[in-house]
Amino acid sequence: MFADRHSTNTFRFTGPDMNDPTSANSDPKSFDDRTANEIVDRATLLLATLLGKCTPRRSEYLLFGVTPPIQICFAGSGPIVPVLSLSSSKYNTHAVAHMYYLSMLEDQRQFPAFWVDKNISVFSRLDSGPDAIARDVHQAIKKIDFAGVIAAGSIERILTEQPRHPIPWLIFHLAVCSAYLARDEEAQSLLQKSIDLAKNENPAAYANLISEAQVDLSKLTSDPEGFRSDLIATMASNWSHFKIVSS
Length: 247
Prior knowledge:
Layout: H1 11-14, H2 33-51, E1 55-59, E2 71-73, E3 80-88, E4 94-103, E5 114-117, E6 123-125, H3 130-142, H4 146-151, H5 155-161, H6 168-180, H7 184-201, H8 207-222, H9 224-240, E7 242-244
Antiparallel strand pairs: 1-2, 1-7, 2-3, 3-4, 4-5, 4-6
């Protein structure tokens, strides 16, 4: 997998790279991309109605030239958004549920930064229809501490609880969170760590990260409040392009 920006996260919007299981009674129907996306979007809107206290939204920014999926959001402002999203599986036969925490602190015209929660396990046939898919996901959610999953998406808990694996972009995203919370020494340390990891692993592949982290580190050192103002402006811009989708 390429080491460029956020590439370790791309599976969240394309479905897992796995062979689709088949029903004991019949093989699932495979749909074309457009039809599969329409089924998933309709199921997502129905699921939002079942869940309540959430808002379906879609980013206006294209993702690799493609309209991104509808995302069920459990916050209407702030730096981190707990999100529930559905996507189609590799062969467009099943719907898969994803729960993740989306950062609004980084420019979402690039691939957005987020942290994955793996509590929800659903693999529902697309040919069962949007209503059945929504019910399947809703039933799966009832089996877990969903309120706890949402609460774990606060920026303070992201920074405290997310594993700090030696992955350059992961460390960079945590540095941005730390800077937003005015934990400047920690943010500087994390930015430097992301640079060092990138240079040690593959400087050419991580050229964008190295450049961005170096600029951020310089500004955070010389003008931390100005840097935070930039983060707040980016957050406001991202929210302005994250539109509510009506049913």
